[in-house]
Amino acid sequence: MSGAGGASRAGWEHAATPSGADPIRLADFEALALAKLPPGTGAYYSGAANDEVTLRDNTAAFDRWRFVPRIGVEIRGRDASVDVLGRRWPSPFMVAPMALHRLADPEGELAVARACAERGLVFCLSTVGSATIEDVAATGAACWFQLYLLDDEGRNRDLLARAEASGYEALVFTMDAPILGRRERDIRTGFSLPPGVTYANIRRGALKRDDTYGDDEFKPSNTWDDLEWVVGATRLPVVVKGVLHPADAVRALDLGAAAVDVSNHGGRQLDRSIAAIDALPAVVDAVAGRAPVLLDSGVRRGTDVLAALALGARGVMLGRPVLWSLAWGREAGVARALDLLAAEVHLALGLAGLRSPAEASRELLVHAPG
Ligand SMILES: Cc1cc2nc3c(=O)[nH]c(=O)nc-3n(C[C@H](O)[C@H](O)[C@H](O)COP(=O)(O)O)c2cc1C
Description:
This protein has 12 helices and 12 strands. The protein is globular, with a radius of gyration of 19 Å. The strands form 3 sheets. The chain has an 8-stranded parallel beta barrel with strand order 4-5-6-7-8-9-10-11, surrounded by 7 helices. Strands 1-12 form a two-stranded antiparallel ribbon. Strands 2-3 form a two-stranded antiparallel sheet. Strand 4, helix 4 and strand 5 (122-125) form a beta-alpha-beta unit. The chain has one domain (47-367): TIM Barrel (Alpha-Beta Barrel), CATH 3.20.20. The longest helix is centred in the C-terminal third of the chain and has 33 residues, at 320-352. Helix 9 (246-254) packs across helix 10 and helix 11 crosses helix 12. The chain is 37% helix and 14% strand. The protein has helices at 28-36, 39-46, 53-63, 108-119, 133-137, 153-165, 184-189, 224-233, 246-254, 276-287, 302-310, 320-352; strands spanning 65-67, 82-84, 87-89, 93-98, 122-125, 142-147, 170-174, 238-243, 259-262, 293-295, 315-318, 365-367. Bound molecules: flavin mononucleotide.
């Protein structure tokens, strides 16, 4: 991948020629995006539920881990790639499913998917995305489709059939959001969809999704029966997103899921849920190697990715920084964000004395003193 910096010493020379206020780390994109976006959109992207305790804890929890790196290792030629559900990812991350990229940029999901396609990274399209399943597939990106169940079996089948016909490689069934958390920033801004931005894959009616703007077309609870239905209704491998309890990970796999994603939805659902990275070790233990475990919520650094790998994740999903980088610099902005993270992962592996993600183990980490 172009910015991964395989041969360079620091690893990110290709990714960035920083001048002035240009972003040089993923967190930098937030302020740059918020300065450009209408306040309601910025609040919708950056906000989370209630007091946003979990939002803050997702990043703070990464900061509580410390590495115990190894020295003396030949790290030239190290390789950050991982295998996930039959595809080799060049770096151990993909783009998380997120609604409405066109609030940030007219090309929206298509711009993000193109940046992914150029790098061989997987893009996940949300049910409530603002570009069609077919148009996203046409970018050439390796795509996953994220499903929110609608309250209509025929329409759910139609979404699955379209994703399959368009060559999507996996189905992400998000189980932590049948009803929405209370996003108070959206209430304060009175957020609603601006003209010209639509839920492109849901053809009927004025679909609404939030307590500020209703959620009347979605199935208002997701049960294990629903997971069984989804597994039976698609030939794609099913990734259950939103797992925090180890017993739920086991249940999902018992019912036919091919992978689980440890996530608290970026703090947008139940506030004061456990940070994803803190939930990961028990889930990994319970899964016991039966299936890949992914993680999202709070990933901002290559060292976050490394911590997730060390605690047993196969890879991670990158969330908000993708939207912020899209808002800041369109497709080139996303490219820069993806390259920065890939370069940081490559650097972190080397500095930790690892030649590949598979060498990352719990020995690499201790809790910070105090
Ligand atoms: C604006 C926004 C929209 C989102 N939309 C969806 C969605 O449609 N489906 C879904 O499964 N998750 C959705 N998520 C959650 C992300 O997939 C992911 O879990 C979360 O962003 C991770 O937290 P982070 O971005 O702080 O790292 C959304 C997140 C944000 C910020």
